Amino acid sequence: MSRILAVLMLAVFSIVAIAGDISTEDKAKAQLTLAKWMKSRSDDNGRFLFVDRQTNDLMGGYSANVHPMIVPYKDGTVFVCSEIVTDKGDRVTADFLTVKVGDEFKIVEVIMNNRDSVKKMMGM
Fold first, then answer.
1. DSSP one-letter code for 121
2. Measuring CA to CA, how many Å separate 26 from each of 49, 69, 104, 110?
3. Contact between residue 36 and residue 48 where contact means Cβ atoms under 8 Å apart
4. How many domains does the chain have?
């Protein structure tokens, strides 16, 4: 059990170290991009519809993170990693592949409830 904990801690510290390579300004811009993107795709109550990639069901939910984690991927792209609280009260992962275009960020891919896929993409 302690071996698993050590591996998990190493993975977390590696991600935190890598995320430090992103400027504070770019982190803020990426987070703001996510907030605007979510708002533009939510109903008047803030409910966001998405396809759960584990069940392939249409789901509804609400953003659960004020400050999502920013993780560099490659070629200047970053994952903005967040969570959604579903209508049933479950928390699911929400990972937004984001690219810097000029002075702004754009979301180019959304991976809902499939963190294992993101980890594989990152070689974890």
1. H
2. 27, 12, 8, 19
3. no
4. 1
